[in-house]
């Protein structure tokens, strides 16, 4: 009986010890204790994790594009939001999952293990976003890091076809100090897989449309040789906003300038209208200056588009000034001829008829004196007499008054005929005819030149 009790006690103790052992090996901390992986152990963090220093560490890299946050042409800056995955083999880490209740992977803080010193060549600002503080360690020594990063990078952009341009920006990964014999970078996914995965996880694109991502492997050779992987992101601009806000308004202003040729040249509204349209184009050019970069290998087509249209409208304004000057010159000539028209044609007076004209120009403008001819042939003196008072200086006063009225009627008739003919007869309409012909010829050349230029610009933009 005592023997039976002893066996039962022993079995109970063995059962309890088995439970304690099971609980001990089935925790992540037991795995770390087994590996001696603690924060104070510098063995895992101080040196590259290889048993033989002649073996390079193979680092597998994968990058996916989450979002295109900004593309700033003025400063040549590209800001993507990417997801990075790094894997490599730590040869100092290994355990048997069957001895630890099937635990094959544990997460540890990044400070406890060696991490490749990868950097991005194009990065110009430090990423201040939150990062994951942990990494995964597998039982066979494979270490995995998954992290997200906002990359503020420089990108050489070609804005020649702005806003119908396509940009290609690179994100190049390489080690800071480890050369190719220490670390070799290998892309985990090919270009098609990276492109497809990026399209599936893409959150936002904004003004830009993501086209594809190309993966290429290369080497940087200076005094030493570094291994590197470059991801080229290709994206196309959505031009609708710039077309509506910039290209179409300039085209509308050009159409208004063409329509201004229908305004009469005798009025001052045409010149003021053209100056207003020209100032509106100047405002749009100031807006364009804030968009395009200061330096570029080739002149942007949109700058050529604006400058040429500005030049067209400037030539149109100069032509309007010339035409207005010619019309005003003809008007001044006409007004001078009207003011100096005699009240009576003394060339048609009878022979030996003396004629007296008023010497005072002020009296002539006021109509108080007229040319009176002495039809009687007498030598009686003739003085300037006011018509309103009907003063006559001889016996034939009534005849002289009738001749005076006849001369006035002839002058009025000549003036009315000049206005009614529209300056088509006589020398007074010469400059007006020249201005009209010049205006018609310039409008024809102007319209043809504008159509050819717009067609050429559309061909260059859409090619």
TrEMBL record:
It is a multi-pass membrane protein. The chain crosses the membrane at residues 240-259, 271-289, 301-323, 438-457. It catalyses: Ca(2+)(in) = Ca(2+)(out); Na(+)(in) = Na(+)(out); K(+)(in) = K(+)(out). Keywords: Cell membrane, Disulfide bond, Glycoprotein, Ion channel, Ion transport, Ligand-gated ion channel, Membrane, Postsynaptic cell membrane, Receptor, Signal, Synapse, Transmembrane, Transmembrane helix, Transport. Residues 46-239 form the Neurotransmitter-gated ion-channel ligand-binding domain. Residues 247-333 form the Neurotransmitter-gated ion-channel transmembrane domain. It comes from the Eukaryota. One of its GO terms (cellular component) is postsynaptic membrane. CDD domains: LGIC_ECD_5-HT3 (cd18996), LGIC_TM_5-HT3 (cd19063). Residues 1-22 form the signal peptide. It holds the Pfam family Neur_chan_LBD. GO terms for molecular function: extracellular ligand-gated monoatomic ion channel activity; transmembrane signaling receptor activity. It is found in: Postsynaptic cell membrane. Belongs to the ligand-gated ion channel (TC 1.A.9) family. PANTHER family: NEUROTRANSMITTER GATED ION CHANNEL. Forms serotonin (5-hydroxytryptamine/5-HT3)-activated cation-selective channel complexes, which when activated cause fast, depolarizing responses in neurons. This is 5-hydroxytryptamine receptor 3A. It comes from Oncorhynchus tshawytscha.
């Amino acid at each position: 009986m005592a023997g039976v009790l002893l066996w039962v006690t022993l079995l109970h103790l063995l059962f309890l010890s088995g439970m304690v052992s099971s609980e001990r090996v089935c925790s992540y901390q037991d795995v770390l204790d087994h590996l001696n992986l603690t924060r104070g152990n510098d063995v895992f963090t101080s040196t590259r994790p290889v048993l033989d220093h002649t073996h390079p560490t193979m680092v597998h890299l994968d990058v996916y594009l989450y979002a295109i946050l900004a593309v700033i042409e003025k400063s040549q800056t590209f800001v993507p939001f990417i997801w990075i995955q790094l894997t490599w083999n730590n040869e100092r880490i290994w355990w048997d999952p069957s001895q630890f209740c099937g635990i094959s992977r544990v997460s540890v803080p990044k400070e406890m293990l060696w991490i490749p010193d990868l950097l991005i060549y194009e990065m110009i600002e430090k990423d201040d976003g939150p990062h994951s503080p942990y990494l995964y360690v597998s039982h066979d020594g494979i270490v995995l890091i998954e992290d997200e990063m906002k990359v503020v990078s420089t990108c050489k952009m070609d804005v020649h076809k702005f806003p119908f341009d396509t940009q290609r920006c690179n994100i190049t990964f390489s080690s800071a100090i480890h050369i190719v014999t220490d670390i070799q970078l290998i892309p985990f996914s090919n270009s098609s897989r990276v492109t497809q995965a990026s399209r599936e996880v893409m959150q936002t694109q904004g003004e830009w449309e993501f086209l594809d991502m190309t993966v290429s492997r290369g080497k940087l050779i200076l005094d030493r040789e570094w291994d590197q992987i470059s991801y080229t992101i290709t994206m196309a601009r959505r031009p609708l906003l710039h077309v509506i806000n910039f290209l179409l308004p300039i085209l509308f202003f050009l159409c208004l300038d063409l329509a201004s040729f229908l305004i009469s040249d005798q009025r001052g509204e045409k010149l003021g209208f053209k100056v207003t349209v020209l100032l509106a184009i100047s405002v749009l050019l100031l807006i364009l200056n804030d968009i395009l970069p200061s330096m570029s290998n080739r002149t942007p087509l949109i700058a050529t588009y604006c400058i040429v249209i500005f030049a067209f409208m400037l030539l149109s304004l100069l032509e309007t000034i010339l035409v207005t000057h010619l019309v005003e010159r003809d008007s001044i000539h006409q007004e001078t001829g009207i003011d100096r028209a005699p009240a009576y044609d003394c060339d048609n007076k009878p022979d030996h008829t003396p004629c007296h004209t008023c010497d005072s120009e002020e009296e002539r403008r006021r109509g108080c004196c007229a040319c009176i001819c002495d039809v009687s042939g007498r030598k009686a003196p003739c003085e300037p007499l006011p018509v309103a008072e009907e003063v006559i200086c001889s016996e034939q006063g009534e005849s002289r008054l009738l001749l005076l009225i006849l001369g006035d009627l002839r002058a009025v008739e000549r003036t009315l005929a000049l206005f009614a003919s529209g300056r088509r007869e006589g020398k007074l309409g010469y400059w007006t005819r020249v201005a009209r012909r010049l205006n018609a010829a310039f409008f024809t050349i102007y319209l043809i030149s504008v159509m050819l230029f717009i067609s050429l610009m559309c061909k260059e933009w859409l090619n």
